[in-house]
């Protein structure tokens, strides 16, 4: 008889494992099991599912001395551990009531019904600990064994006559405690194994999607506007996954296509229309079959088309469409892969658009700052010429020509970055006007390291030189301006110094703190430098024994990467 019980319990455990495997392939059940905060309807559904498992266990049990040797405890405990307290107690009520009604008046009908309720309580009590991952296989084994020991104790307490109950417990205790405890471990691990496999497949697809997105990133920086970049992106996808064809579209046309030449039908407008229509709901759409009159009919006879929307600012801007060969089973992984890859592409496209807008705003800001400098320079230049007009009209005429030449170059040049030598040429034009005003009282020294011709923001030096000329007079009224550009550790350090009384401490403090009271010229230069080269690379100003010195550093070669458009 014990051998029969062991064999019967083993068959029952095998049946429960089969049921568990089938349940893990039902999307509705998967969602319920993976959701840690199921609503009341979800908890009721889980109670019904595991309650039915308990009923099946009762029906498939084997009779022994007026009792039914079965695996009912597995369904009830699993309901509590996997579904939570409400699901556990619901399954226990269903399983316990059925056990009582199944054998009304039977020797163990009441005791087994009561023990089923107790098992539900035990599973519910350990639910939180289980979901936190604090119960391993050994813990599950011991909890199930304890639940079965409790059932044996309840049989001894309730079932009468006592001697018959004692004989029954001696017969069934060991098989039920050991087999059901082992069966519970296998049952739970069946659920766990299937979810691990699913997570592994999903993780593999996500790794692939991230790798493709990383390789495609350089081609997404220009948005959907570069056909060559879009063609490179679809080629990367096509070479990375097993598919028949890949294409990227905007909301009107196909931007890029990669696939076997025999699938060129996918490039026609009649195919494009249903694909573009499908992305309006902002969800991935799978085309599996179509009517004969449908333009997708010929393609869908042997293939599945997955169209995932590309979203920017919550609006569809195009689609990523992948065509795969049909298989005997439906692969949700392909749909998830296409959808997640489209999401990654959408994020990159949106970031590229934001970066482009940021650069445009930066250019607009620089132009605005330039506009603040130019009128100031014009005022000073005209004021200088007005002084010269009284004494030397010919010299005034030369200065006017110098000024007009300077402004012609300025207006014709719309670049916001210039070579250092071009910038110095503009500064020399300004100094030519100032020398006419101060004559021998203005001395200028310019030193540039040999072969140094870096790029600098346009009109970045003029405000600094203008400040040095205006405020750099020594006690005798002489003005000395030194402009230097030297290499230092891969950078070009550009400085403007004078022999004046120095910069007032309040102006120095305000300039470094960014309060906006560091003087219009200095403040503009400071803001522009930080805007282009970063917050730590603004204008530096110090007072020396000789006078004031302002300086900044720029890359000795090329443009800053963040400003290349």
From TrEMBL:
<keyword id="KW-0067">ATP-binding</keyword>
<keyword id="KW-0812">Transmembrane</keyword>
<feature type="transmembrane region" description="Helical">
    <location>
        <begin position="7"/>
        <end position="28"/>
    </location>
</feature>
<dbReference type="GO" id="GO:0005886">
    <property type="term" value="C:plasma membrane"/>
</dbReference>
<dbReference type="InterPro" id="IPR010559">
    <property type="entry name" value="Sig_transdc_His_kin_internal"/>
</dbReference>
<dbReference type="Pfam" id="PF06580">
    <property type="entry name" value="His_kinase"/>
</dbReference>
<dbReference type="Pfam" id="PF02518">
    <property type="entry name" value="HATPase_c"/>
</dbReference>
<feature type="transmembrane region" description="Helical">
    <location>
        <begin position="168"/>
        <end position="188"/>
    </location>
</feature>
<keyword id="KW-0547">Nucleotide-binding</keyword>
<feature type="transmembrane region" description="Helical">
    <location>
        <begin position="40"/>
        <end position="62"/>
    </location>
</feature>
<feature type="transmembrane region" description="Helical">
    <location>
        <begin position="139"/>
        <end position="162"/>
    </location>
</feature>
<protein>
    <recommendedName>
        <fullName>histidine kinase</fullName>
        <ecNumber>2.7.13.3</ecNumber>
    </recommendedName>
</protein>
<dbReference type="Pfam" id="PF07694">
    <property type="entry name" value="5TM-5TMR_LYT"/>
</dbReference>
<dbReference type="GO" id="GO:0000155">
    <property type="term" value="F:phosphorelay sensor kinase activity"/>
</dbReference>
<keyword id="KW-1003">Cell membrane</keyword>
<dbReference type="GO" id="GO:0071555">
    <property type="term" value="P:cell wall organization"/>
</dbReference>
<keyword id="KW-1133">Transmembrane helix</keyword>
<feature type="transmembrane region" description="Helical">
    <location>
        <begin position="74"/>
        <end position="98"/>
    </location>
</feature>
<dbReference type="InterPro" id="IPR005467">
    <property type="entry name" value="His_kinase_dom"/>
</dbReference>
<dbReference type="InterPro" id="IPR011620">
    <property type="entry name" value="Sig_transdc_His_kinase_LytS_TM"/>
</dbReference>
<keyword id="KW-0597">Phosphoprotein</keyword>
<keyword id="KW-0902">Two-component regulatory system</keyword>
<dbReference type="InterPro" id="IPR003594">
    <property type="entry name" value="HATPase_dom"/>
</dbReference>
<keyword id="KW-0472">Membrane</keyword>
<keyword id="KW-0418">Kinase</keyword>
<dbReference type="InterPro" id="IPR050640">
    <property type="entry name" value="Bact_2-comp_sensor_kinase"/>
</dbReference>
<dbReference type="InterPro" id="IPR036890">
    <property type="entry name" value="HATPase_C_sf"/>
</dbReference>
<dbReference type="InterPro" id="IPR029016">
    <property type="entry name" value="GAF-like_dom_sf"/>
</dbReference>
<dbReference type="GO" id="GO:0005524">
    <property type="term" value="F:ATP binding"/>
</dbReference>
<feature type="domain" description="Histidine kinase">
    <location>
        <begin position="460"/>
        <end position="558"/>
    </location>
</feature>
<keyword id="KW-0808">Transferase</keyword>
């Amino acid at each position: 008889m014990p051998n029969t019980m062991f064999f019967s319990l083993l068959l029952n455990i095998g049946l429960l494992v089969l049921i568990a495997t089938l349940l893990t392939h039902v999307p509705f059940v998967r969602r319920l099991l993976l959701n840690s905060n199921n609503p009341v309807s979800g908890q009721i559904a889980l109670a019904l599912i595991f309650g039915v498992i308990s009923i099946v266990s009762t029906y498939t049990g084997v009779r022994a001395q007026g009792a039914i040797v079965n695996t009912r405890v597995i369904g009830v405990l699993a309901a509590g551990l996997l579904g939570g307290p409400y699901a556990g107690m619901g399954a226990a009520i269903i399983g316990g009531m059925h056990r009582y009604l199944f054998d009304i008046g039977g020797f163990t009908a009441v005791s087994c019904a009561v023990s089923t309720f107790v098992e539900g309580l035990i599973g519910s009590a350990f639910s939180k600990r289980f979901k936190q991952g604090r119960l391993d296989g050994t813990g599950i084994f011991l909890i199930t064994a304890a639940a079965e020991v409790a059932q044996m104790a309840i049989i001894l307490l309730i079932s009468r006559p006592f001697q018959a109950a004692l004989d029954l417990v001696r017969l069934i205790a060991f098989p039920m405690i050991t087999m059901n405890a082992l069966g519970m471990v296998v049952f739970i691990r069946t659920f766990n194994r299937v979810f691990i496999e699913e997570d592994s497949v999903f993780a593999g697809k996500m790794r692939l999607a991230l790798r493709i997105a990383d390789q495609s990133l350089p081609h997404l920086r220009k948005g959907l506007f570069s056909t060559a970049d879009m063609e490179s992106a679809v080629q990367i996808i096509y070479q990375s996954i097993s598919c028949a064809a890949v294409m990227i579209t905007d909301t009107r046309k196909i931007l890029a296509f990669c696939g076997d030449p025999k699938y060129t039908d996918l490039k026609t407008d009649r195919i494009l229309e249903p694909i573009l229509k499908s992305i309006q709901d902002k969800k991935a759409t799978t085309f599996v079959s179509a009517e004969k009159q449908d333009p997708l009919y010929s393609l869908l006879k042997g293939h599945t088309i997955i169209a995932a929307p590309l979203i920017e600012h919550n609006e569809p801007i195009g689609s990523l469409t992948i065509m795969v060969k049909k298989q005997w089973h439906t692969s949700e992984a392909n749909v998830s892969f296409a959808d997640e890859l489209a999401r990654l592409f959408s994020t990159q496209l949106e970031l590229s658009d934001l970066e482009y807008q940021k650069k445009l705003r930066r250019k607009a800001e620089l132009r605005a700052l330039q506009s603040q400098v130019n009128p100031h320079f014009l005022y000073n230049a005209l004021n200088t010429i007005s002084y010269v007009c009284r004494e030397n009209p010919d010299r005034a005429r030369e200065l006017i020509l110098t000024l007009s030449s300077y402004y012609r170059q300025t207006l014709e040049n719309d670049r916001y970055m210039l070579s250092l030598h071009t910038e110095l040429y503009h500064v020399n034009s300004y100094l030519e006007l100032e020398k006419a005003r101060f004559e021998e009282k203005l001395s200028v020294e310019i030193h540039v390291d040999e072969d140094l011709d870096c790029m600098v923001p346009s009109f970045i030096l003029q405000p600094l030189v203008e400040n040095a000329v205006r405020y750099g007079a020594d006690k005798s009224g002489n003005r000395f301006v030194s402009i230097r550009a030297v290499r230092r550790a891969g950078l070009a350090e550009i400085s403007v110094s004078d022999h004046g009384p120095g910069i007032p401490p309040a102006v120095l403090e305000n300039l470094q703190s960014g309060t906006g009271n560091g003087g219009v010229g200095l403040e503009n230069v400071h803001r522009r430098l930080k805007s282009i080269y970063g917050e730590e690379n603004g204008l530096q100003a110090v007072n020396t024994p000789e006078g004031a010195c302002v300086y900044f550093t720029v890359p000795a070669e090329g443009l800053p990467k963040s400003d290349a458009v």
